[in-house]
Amino acid sequence: MTNKVALVTGAAAGIGRAICHRLSRDGIAIGVLDISGDGAQRVADEVTAAGGKAVGLTADVSNRAEVSAALDTLRQAFGPVTIAVNNAGMTGFVPFMELTEELWDRMLAVNLRSAFTVTQLVLPDMLAASWGRIVNISSSSAQSGAVNMAHYSASKGGMIALTRTLAQEFGEHGITANTIPPRFVHNTEMSLASFERPEMKAKFQAMIDAGPIRRHGEPEDIAGAAAWLVSEEAGYVTGQVIGVNGGRYI
Ligand SMILES: NC(=O)c1ccc[n+]([C@@H]2O[C@H](COP(=O)([O-])OP(=O)(O)OC[C@H]3O[C@@H](n4cnc5c(N)ncnc54)[C@H](O)[C@@H]3O)[C@@H](O)[C@H]2O)c1
Questions:
Q1: Cβ(13) to ligand 1 under 6 A?
Q2: DSSP bridge partners of 92
Q3: What's the 92 CA to ligand 1 centre distance in angstroms?
């Protein structure tokens, strides 16, 4: 994979950071994109220090102009971008009747419209190469539903549907699109702010104990699946929902 270039969004922390490190180990040059420019640069420096190639990119994924400018920087650094990992996301816990249009719109813009924007902006490189890999990080909440997360779970459900459509529209060009819906992945900013809160610990431990594989997911669990999905070996896999969830959603 040494001639490949990947854009990973939401890459300053958690799952995105782990994906950057894992793809870099396969020789892929990485665009580490995050709304936190310092965080993106920190991860790019980590990847470079480990012997990889990476550039830190600052952009809000809901802002098309910022994403486009970041992609230009990535192309100048390493060439055409034929791997896109749409991982950036936000979460929120609001009872349905208290949701406002503002909260709904922001969630959908960051979690779903971003995947449309990023994918549309990288597709010309993939089409020119007759090769591409799109990996969208959705959520098991899209499969199961999640109380007080209507806007979040709807955004992630949209991502699954988007993935299936991209797979059908671009498969003939050698481009695959797949989605990984994680369940509880700990040691990320998002999990610390949600299910790793002290008052939630007992509840979530009980859910873990009820599942087939009795531990939280690690960011590296998701990164390993993403690395396979972007590899040559996975070229016959498209439009799929690859559950990396310890069997907690079957
Ligand atoms: N952690 C879990 O248990 C879990 C479960 C299901 C799905 N997910 C999904 O996995 C993805 C990564 O989650 P994580 O747990 O690593 O979260 P995280 O909060 O640790 O990391 C998310 C990263 O995205 C960045 N980001 C947020 N909004 C952005 C924006 N507008 N533009 C650019 N960057 C932005 C943040 O700065 C952060 O670095 C998310 O899409 C999340 O919804 C996580």
A1: yes
A2: none
A3: 12
**Helix boundaries (H) for the chain:** 14-25, 37-49, 64-78, 101-108, 114-129, 141-144, 150-170, 189-193, 201-209, 219-229
Is residue 137 a contact partner of residue 152, using CB atoms and an 8 Å limit?
A: no
pLDDT in tens, 186-237: 889 888 887 778 888 888 888 888 889 999 999 999 999 999 999 999 999 9
Delineate the domains of the chain, giving CATH numbers in brackets. Answer: 5-185+218-234 (3.40.50.720)
Q: Is the CB of 188 under 6 A from ligand 1?
A: yes
Q: What is the pLDDT of residues 47-96, one digit of tens each?
A: 999 999 999 999 999 999 999 999 999 999 999 999 999 999 999 999 99
CA distance 168 to 148: 33
Q: How far is the CA of 177 from the centre of ligand 1 (A)?
A: 19
Is 249 in the active site? no
Q: Which DSSP symbol is given to 185? A: B
Distances (CA, A) of 169 to 59, 81, 223, 239: 27, 19, 26, 10
Give the distance (Å) from ligand 1 centre to CA of residue 207: 22
